[in-house]
Amino acid sequence: MRRVFLVGSLVLVVAAAGCAGVALRTEGSSAAIRAAEEVGAKDVPQAALHLQLAKESLEKATKLSKQGEEAQAKSLLTRAEADAELAVVLSREDSERQAAMEAVEQVRQLRLANPDRSIP
Q1: Following DSSP, what letter does each residue of the chain receive, concatenated?
Q2: Do 84 and 32 form a contact (C-beta atoms < 8 A)?
Q3: Within its chain, how far is the Cα of 23 from the centroid?
Q4: Does the predicted TM-score (pTM) go above 0.85?
Q5: Residues contacting residue 102 through CB under 8 Å, at least 6 positions apart
Q6: CB 56, CB 105: distance < 8 Å
Q7: Using alpha carbons only, what angle is made at residue 81 by residues 75 and 86, rounded to the nearest 5 degrees?
Q8: Which of 12, 40, 41, 117 could serve as 51's disulfide partner, Cβ 3.0–4.6 Å?
Q9: How far apart are CA 112 and CA 101, in angstroms?
Q10: What are phi and psi of 14, to 5 degrees?
Q11: Backbone phi, then psi, for 24, in 5-degree steps?
């Protein structure tokens, strides 16, 4: 009986030590931040704001993790990823808006150049 108790205690100690040493997983947030940077979020004011918030949240999460505040760190990582993904969406929306405006301008130019032709 005592041997079972010792083995059980040893398993609990090893498990607790393993949990304490688990590194904070920042890959998802870091990848989302990189994606936002790659689509040009820094050039779109609203997207740039969310990109900066994502970077700050990631930095704070890393600090909190080092201080043992895993729950708060994970929460900030979730926020960082959400902010970075929002920056991506806002950047893409801006690009699509610009492309649509360019298309409208091309149609306008075609209509001006060809007033006799029916251009929808």
Answers
A1: -HHHHHHHHHHHHHHHHHHHTPPP--HHHHHHHHHHHHTTGGGSHHHHHHHHHHHHHHHHHHHHHHTT-HHHHHHHHHHHHHHHHHHHHHHHHHHHHHHHHHHHHHHHHHHHH-TTS---
A2: yes
A3: 19
A4: no
A5: none
A6: no
A7: 125
A8: 41
A9: 17
A10: -65, -40
A11: -65, 130
Residue with tokens 């209509």: 111
Tens of pLDDT along the chain (120 residues) come to: 444 443 444 334 334 444 444 468 999 999 999 999 999 999 999 999 999 999 999 999 999 999 999 999 999 999 999 999 999 999 999 999 999 999 999 999 988 888 777 656
Structure-token pair, residue 42: 């820094």
C-alpha span between 95 and 87 (Å, rounded): 12
